[in-house]
Structures are given as C-alpha cells and as structure tokens.
Amino acid sequence: MQHPCLTCGACCAFFRVSFHWSETDPALGGTVPAELTEKFDSHRVVMRGTSSKTPRCVALDAEIGVRARCSIHPIKPSVCREVPASWEYGAISPQCDKARIAHGMPALTPEDWIGVEPPPAP
C-alpha cells in the first residue's frame, strides 16, 4: 500500500511553514533553497505561499486528497520533518488531523497503516 501522505498534501496547504533562516544558508549547513522562502521576521523565514490567507507551499506538487509530492522532500525544512502523519508512529498527530479535516478528508486511523511499507533506511 502507498503511504497516506502521497495521496494527501493537506498539511502543506494549511499551515504556515516558518523556520530559522539558517536552514537556507549552505555555509551553515542549510539545505532549503532560499529562493523558495520569504522573510517572516528577524529570525525566521517561511516557505513561499504559506503565509497567505489560503496557504499552499510553493514546493507542493499536489491535487489535495488525490496525489501529493514535496518537490524538495529530501531537503525540506526541519518543521516539515517534525510533523508526522497521524498513527504513522503509533500516535495521533493533531496537526495532521486538523489539516486533513480542513480539506474535507477524514483523520487517519491505525487501520490506514495496515500494509504500508516502512520507508527504506537512509
């Protein structure tokens, strides 16, 4: 079975994605392309598109609820890596549930993970 996030994309079109500007600076180990961000305040940047009234991350390639892909997945911001899908690791994720429900999808359940292959080890 396919990972539920690959047919979702709701979180990327619901939340503001803000993080420390150093994640865009290669000299400091940052990997997020600076051109995909905009200044939020003196310490943070946001992924372009996520500060709008109807947020949608510039890196999201998706039809919400049908297919979803992050175009910078291997180098995405830390905040994106820190939000798991509900029940992916055996616990509910309020952020995941809130975004899915806002886009008219049901919250994930433990049953949604039956048969889903774990990702390969890095």
Automatic annotation (TrEMBL):
Pfam families: CxxCxxCC. InterPro entries: Puta_zinc/iron-chelating_dom. This is Fe-S-cluster containining protein. The lineage of its organism: Bacteria, Pseudomonadati, Pseudomonadota, Gammaproteobacteria, Lysobacterales.
